[in-house]
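User: Hi! I have a protein structure encoded as tokens and I'd like to know what sequence might fold into it. I'm fairly new to this, so please keep things simple.
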């Protein structure tokens, strides 16, 4: 991700027309990857079933420690980033140079860190009025209308229909004739994924649901959650039908050979293992994470500013705090064994960066992966429920509420905005403390899942979330390289 961002940013400095090339040829592909990369998060959630079931007391302690550390992390991230960025804003005189009218100021005073216009209870949701019709439609007209609606729905969801068709006509026959369930698991995974997205889309655009019901249902039908549960059900059903252990079924579901690994070990025996459903999903996830370098370039004005410095500072402080205080806190609470406590050293770090940290600390990587994924799902659901938008309205800082904070239109480069008013508003939004604080909080506590949601909803907090996620992971890995510190942490937790 960082390499892609640095490469395209350097190219933009040296060659003219890179912005136009990105908008025309790369932006749509990056948005598509971002839309579907979250399917990769279902795999670590499914693999939780591999871990042995602990006793009730240990499970209760883990849940309690998980909730406590998550709550403390969220508060610290927000209330560290907010005052720091507020000070940065006060030092920047350009933010206060505005001549907007009072009405425009009040209208723009809300930071649009959370764009939930179609799902939030407090958002404007226009329901088309029901018009009284004098003419009664004939049965033939109703049939034609239903057929037209079905055709439109089919054209809007072609991949959903294709994968369900492949599941029935290819996956199931191959499973019962050859015993190979690779095709079935791949087709079923994406069929369920696209079905969940279609349900969410129908809820978001429905004109029959009240706004609050819309928000509730949209949050409940989280695509990652329901796809994970469906695939867990499939794994247990497959184990019962084939009379195999669940560990063998999950081993076939993910062979640890995504495309990146196959390319890195090209020509070796590692490429002999076929890609399974989990490997395909993780390949899409890895591609989406790399493509975030393009999204960072899209928001480069925000990142290469004092706000970016705020993000790095807060992420570094919390990375060190989690590394040291997380394991010590849960150890004092009574969580055993030591490997479980050490898993909290990287409880919010993306799995790709948390794995080497767990190897150094000898922590429970299964528990760590479970916490990362569950945190992401909870944040995604909370944002879907409109919690972020509600908190944004309740939390203010100083006199910032009286200052203009109109945000940029996501996906539109600031350099391309020729209108002077838009440029001034965009420049001020770059320094909006609440937008920066929200992005930092989500990026640090929900890994890539919350960031993916922000990009999907075109939130202005998305680039700060992505940057904080990267900074947290890098600083956590950096802290794990300090051998005296790691030795002291392990010694204290093992005591």
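Assistant: Happy to help. Inverse folding works backwards from shape to sequence: for each of the 495 positions I chose a residue that suits the local structure. Here it is:
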């Amino acid at each position: 991700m960082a390499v892609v961002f640095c490469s395209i940013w350097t190219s933009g400095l040296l060659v003219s027309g890179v912005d136009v090339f990105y908008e025309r040829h790369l932006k749509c592909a990056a948005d598509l990857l971002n839309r579907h990369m979250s399917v990769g998060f279902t795999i670590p959630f499914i693999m939780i079933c591999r871990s042995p079931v602990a006793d009730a007391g240990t499970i209760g302690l883990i849940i309690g420690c998980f909730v406590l550390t998550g709550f403390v992390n969220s508060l610290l991230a927000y209330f560290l980033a907010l005052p720091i960025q507020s000070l940065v804003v006060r030092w920047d005189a350009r933010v206060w140079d505005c001549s907007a009218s009072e009405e425009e100021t009040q209208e723009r005073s809300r930071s649009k860190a959370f764009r939930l216009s179609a799902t939030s209870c407090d958002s404007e949701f226009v329901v088309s009025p029901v018009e009284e019709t004098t003419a009664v439609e004939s049965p033939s007209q109703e049939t034609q209308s239903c057929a037209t609606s079905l055709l439109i729905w089919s054209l809007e969801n072609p991949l959903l229909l294709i994968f369900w068709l492949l599941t029935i006509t290819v996956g199931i026959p191959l499973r019962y004739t050859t015993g190979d369930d690779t095709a079935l698991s791949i087709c079923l995974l994406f069929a369920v994924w696209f079905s969940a997205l279609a349900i969410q889309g129908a809820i978001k655009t429905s004109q029959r649901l009240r706004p609050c019901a819309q928000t509730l249902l949209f949050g409940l039908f989280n695509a990652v959650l329901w796809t994970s549960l469906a695939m867990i059900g499939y794994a247990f059903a497959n184990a019962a039908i084939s009379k195999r252990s669940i560990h063998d079924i999950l081993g076939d579901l993910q062979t640890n050979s995504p495309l990146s690994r196959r390319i890195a070990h090209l020509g070796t025996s590692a490429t002999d293992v076929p890609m399974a459903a989990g490997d395909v999903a993780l390949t899409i996830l890895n591609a989406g994470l790399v493509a975030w370098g393009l999204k960072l370039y899209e928001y480069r004005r925000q990142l290469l500013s004092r706000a970016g410095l705020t993000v790095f500072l807060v992420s570094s402080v919390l990375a060190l705090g989690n590394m040291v205080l997380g394991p010590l806190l849960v150890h004092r609470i009574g969580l055993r064994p030591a490997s479980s406590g050490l898993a909290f050293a990287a409880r919010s770090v993306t799995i790709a960066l948390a794995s080497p940290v767990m190897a150094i600390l000898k922590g429970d990587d299964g528990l760590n992966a479970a916490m990362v994924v569950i945190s992401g799902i909870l944040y995604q659901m909370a944002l879907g429920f409109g919690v972020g938008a509600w908190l944004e309205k309740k939390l203010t800082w100083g006199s910032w509420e009286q200052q203009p904070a109109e945000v940029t239109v996501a996906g539109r480069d600031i350099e391309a905005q020729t209108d002077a008013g838009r440029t001034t508003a965009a420049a001020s939004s770059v320094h909006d403390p609440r937008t920066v604080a929200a992005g930092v909080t989500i990026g640090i506590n929900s890994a890539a899942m919350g960031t993916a949601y922000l990009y999907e909803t075109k939130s202005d907090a998305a680039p700060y979330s992505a940057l904080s996620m990267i900074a947290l992971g890098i600083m956590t890995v950096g802290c794990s390289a300090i051998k005296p510190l790691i030795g002291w942490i392990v010694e204290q937790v093992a005591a």
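A useful reference point when you look it over: The chain has one domain: 48-123+160-494. Feel free to ask if any position seems puzzling.
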